[in-house]
Amino acid sequence: MPESPENAINSLMQNDPHIIAGAVLKGSEIVYSTDNWDISADIGRISSSWMSQNAQFIMVSGVKYSVLQMESERLVAMSYKGEGSIVASKDDVHKLIIYLDPDGYALGAVMEVQRAV
Predict the structure, then answer these.
(1) If you classify domain 5-116 with CATH, what class do you get?
(2) Cα–Cα distance list, 101 to 13, 58, 65, 85, 116 (Å)
């Protein structure tokens, strides 16, 4: 991650107003999270689903997101009930997970998230 976790998320949020929350993990530990998003209870499930690379959905903050893309370096999932999307990317050390509002374009945001890691 070329910049600090906080700066990486803030830059993403400034460049895309539909990104309304984010978190950076190192292993299974949250090293930074925006004040408006607590995913600490979901980290284990998100990580295990991502590592399996065959999950059809993930649960974050009690919301079910259907997986659109799940590869070793990225994850894209959206709520079909209109509750937004989850986009994540990782490098060898960090995982960057962001939440987009319902009007956000997850497949476009994933490229920016990958560049930020």
Answers:
(1) alpha beta
(2) 11, 17, 13, 7, 19
CA dist 55 and 32 (Å) reads: 26
Q: Where are the domains of the chain?
A: 5-116
d(CA 11, CA 68): 25
With residue 109 as reference, give the H or E element that holds it. Answer: helix 106-116
Pairwise CA distance, residues 81 & 97, whole Å:
20
* CA–CA distance, 54 with 101 (Å, rounded to integer): 25
Q: In this predicted structure, what is the pLDDT of residue 28?
A: 87
The answer to whether 74 and 110 have CB atoms below 8 angstroms apart is: yes
Mean pLDDT within 31-46: 95
pTM: 0.94
